[in-house]
């Protein structure tokens, strides 16, 4: 059964972390966990906060093509793994008004001055292609 983006959004709702992969200056692939603070109502856009002086930001400034990997559970009693791989384009957002729209109190743990934290950056990933595996069911959604 082919899933829609709305189906994927529902299945992804409880996934808190994604692995964000970027291309380094040497051509390697670097991956790191990023939290969405369980604000997933997935419509093809993902948002993550980080600091300006990170390798993540340097990689995106050089090459904005990124991927996200999600792992969740589905099926009866959540016994089956559910995987989502996203290919997309990342933009770096430095606008405090945009930060406020996506901020949650859980982020205060990582950024002690909230949206006023010096060097704060929001990564906005716009999906172009989403591939999923749900048990024996797999498919792709193009955006």
Structural notes for this entry:
This protein has 3 helices and 7 strands, in the order H-E-E-E-H-E-E-H-E-E. It has one domain: Electron Transport, Fmn-binding Protein, Chain A (Pnp Oxidase, Chain A). 16% of the residues lie in helices and 46% in strands. The protein is globular, with a radius of gyration of 16 Å. The model has no long low-confidence stretch (mean pLDDT 88). The protein is of the alpha+beta class and 143 residues long. Strands 1, 2, 3, 4, 5, 6 and 7 form a 7-stranded antiparallel beta sheet that branches.
SSE blueprint and pairings:
Elements: H1 5-12, E1 17-23, E2 29-35, E3 45-51, H2 55-62, E4 65-74, E5 80-93, H3 96-102, E6 120-134, E7 137-142
Antiparallel strand pairs: 1-2, 1-4, 3-6, 4-5, 5-6, 6-7
């Amino acid at each position: 059964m082919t899933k829609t983006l709305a189906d994927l959004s529902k299945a992804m709702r409880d996934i808190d972390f994604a692995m964000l992969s970027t291309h380094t200056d040497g051509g390697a692939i670097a991956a790191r966990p990023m939290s969405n603070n369980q604000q997933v109502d997935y419509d093809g856009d993902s948002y993550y906060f980080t600091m300006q002086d990170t390798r993540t930001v340097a990689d995106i400034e050089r090459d904005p093509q990124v991927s996200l990997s999600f792992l969740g559970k589905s099926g009866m009693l959540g016994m089956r793994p559910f995987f989502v791989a996203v290919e997309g384009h990342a933009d770096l957002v430095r606008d405090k008004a945009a930060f406020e729209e996506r901020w949650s109190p859980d982020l205060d743990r990582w950024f002690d001055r909230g949206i006023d934290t010096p060097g704060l950056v929001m990564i906005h990933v716009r999906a172009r292609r989403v591939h999923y595996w749900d048990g024996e069911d797999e498919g792709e959604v193009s955006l």
